[in-house]
Every structure is written in structure tokens, then in C-alpha cells.
Backbone:
């Protein structure tokens, strides 16, 4: 997990998609995948969002998924006080786990 930013300690990433929906990465933007402010490579599966660029890394270029994870800070945690979506995903995953 990353260090605190402006005094806010990041919460563990739950794959809520907030970051990619609000501010797509430079790579997605440069590939023309960030239309209308949302990344077209943001995929929903198994109760969370996944980065399609990382999942299909060998198809995109010669870098592997670990390169993408490091450079996109994927899974590093949420430090946005405006993220209301994160708690919804946590709740849904807890509810699903009890079923």
C-alpha cells in the first residue's frame, strides 16, 4: 500500500473502478481508450473492476502485467475522500460472501 497523501492513509483497493472512471491513466488516454472520461478497458467481473490493459498486456505491447501494475499504481489503495463507490463494493462483497 502507498504512503499517506496529504495526511490521508489509503484504504485497501477493492476494485471499485473509481480512479479509472474519474481519471483514466495516461496510457489508456494515449491509446484512445478513455472516451467521455471513462476507460473502455475497465472490466467488471467477480464483484469488482479489473484493468483490461493489465489482463491483456501481451496483446497491447511487449510489457507484462507487472509493468502495468507498477506504473498505473493498480491495487495501491484508495485515498480519495470523494469515493462513495468503494463502500458499496465492500458491502456487496461481504453480502455475497455470506450467501
Residues:
Amino acid at each position: 500500500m502507498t504512503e499517506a497523501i496529504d495526511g490521508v492513509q489509503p484504504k485497501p483497493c477493492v476494485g471499485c473502478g473509481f480512479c479509472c472512471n474519474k481519471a483514466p491513466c495516461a496510457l489508456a488516454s494515449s491509446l484512445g481508450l478513455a472516451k467521455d472520461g471513462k476507460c473502455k478497458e475497465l472490466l467488471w467481473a467477480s464483484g469488482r473492476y479489473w484493468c483490461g490493459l493489465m489482463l491483456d498486456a501481451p496483446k497491447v505491447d511487449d510489457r507484462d502485467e507487472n509493468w502495468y501494475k507498477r506504473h498505473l499504481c493498480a491495487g495501491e489503495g484508495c485515498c480519495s475522500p470523494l469515493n462513495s463507490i468503494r463502500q458499496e463494493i465492500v458491502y456487496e462483497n461481504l453480502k455475497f460472501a455470506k450467501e
Residues 5 and 69 are 19 Å apart (CA to CA). The radius of gyration is 14 Å. The chain has a mean pLDDT of 75.
